[in-house]
Design goal:
Helix content is 34%, strand content 24%. The relative contact order is 0.17. The chain is globular. With 285 residues, the protein is α/β, with parallel strands linked by helices. Helix 6 links the parallel strand 7 and strand 8.
Length: 285
């Protein structure tokens, strides 16, 4: 198991960090990739895929199973090198290189480490952990309601608490872009809503950009500024939806779902998914 898979991913090869002034925290240009089967047949996953994510923007990617969503994350994070095309991670406001953090569905907490020790693990991959890092970790754990369990071990935590530790570990490396691969799918509904609020708070607190892969259409609409619908084989962007919701008070996981526009967006995504699933089934029948 690669630690970089759940902490931060190195950026190398065709994955570039830029120090130019740019409002995009992520830019994917002409990305193509395929897999070779055991009998030597190349199966295209993406062909000349293009999209970008602005600073502080939350974008969800939805698509049928097998559309290549997780593969796309592996390409963006540098865990897989693209066969052609470019992935560019935008610079910070001070001109220093941007950084990607990748959070998976499984929290991957190490049972022999305390909550606090798990939280600073991402930092350890880069350098020696300092006293200031532990203090910042305790402050962030407290912000997520985990201050009282900082010295406890993962086995004593609920699923939602474990995911908050994983989110803390992800954010402590100061990423400019966070990739979330269905991180809340195994949680109960109430906990999922709370963690969706945590994700939306990232923009307000630090201007961090977020790309979320999810099968949950409601989650995608509730938390996102845009929803990208992947379809076809090789996968292409079938729809790029600008989500604008009218909420009572600040937008939250609950108020977003109560917005009058919510069902319209839900129907648009659902009909797009259903259409491309039917087309794919017909093509492979």
């Amino acid at each position: 198991m690669s630690l970089s898979a759940f902490a931060t991913a190195p950026v190398a090869g065709a994955i570039d960090t830029t120090r130019e002034s740019d409002t995009d925290h992520l830019k994917v240009q002409q990305l193509s990739h395929s897999f070779r089967t055991a009998d030597g047949v190349d199966v295209p996953i993406f062909e000349r895929l293009d999209f970008s994510v602005k600073s502080g923007e939350i974008v969800s990617i939805v698509g049928r199973s097998g559309a290549g969503k997780s593969t796309l994350f592996n390409l963006v994070s540098g865990l897989i090198q693209p066969q052609s095309g470019h992935v560019r991670v935008g610079a910070r406001k001070d001109g220093s290189a941007g950084r990607i953090a990748y959070m998976l569905q499984k929290d991957l907490l190490m049972p022999w480490r305390t909550v606090l020790q798990n939280a600073v693990l991402g930092i350890e991959l880069y350098r020696k952990v300092k006293a200031a890092d532990y203090e910042r970790a305790r402050q962030m754990l407290s912000r997520y309601g985990l201050g009282a369990v900082a010295d406890a071990y993962p086995h004593s935590l609920s699923g939602g608490m474990r995911q908050r530790v994983a989110l803390t570990r992800t954010l402590l490396v100061d990423p400019t872009l966070v990739l979330l691969d269905e991180p809340f799918s195994a949680l109960d509904y109430e906990t999922r809503l709370a963690l969706e609020d945590d994700v939306m708070a990232l923009r307000e607190q630090s201007g961090t950009s977020v790309v979320l892969v999810t099968h949950d259409i409601e989650e995608a609409i509730a938390v996102s500024d845009r929803v990208i619908l992947l379809g076809g084989r090789p996968a292409r962007i079938e729809d790029d939806i600008d989500v604008r919701l009218t909420t009572h008070g600040p937008r939250s996981a609950v108020s977003a779902r109560e917005a009058p526009e919510f069902r319209t967006f839900h129907s648009r995504v659902w009909n797009g998914l259903r259409s491309h699933t039917i087309q794919h089934s017909g093509a492979t029948a």
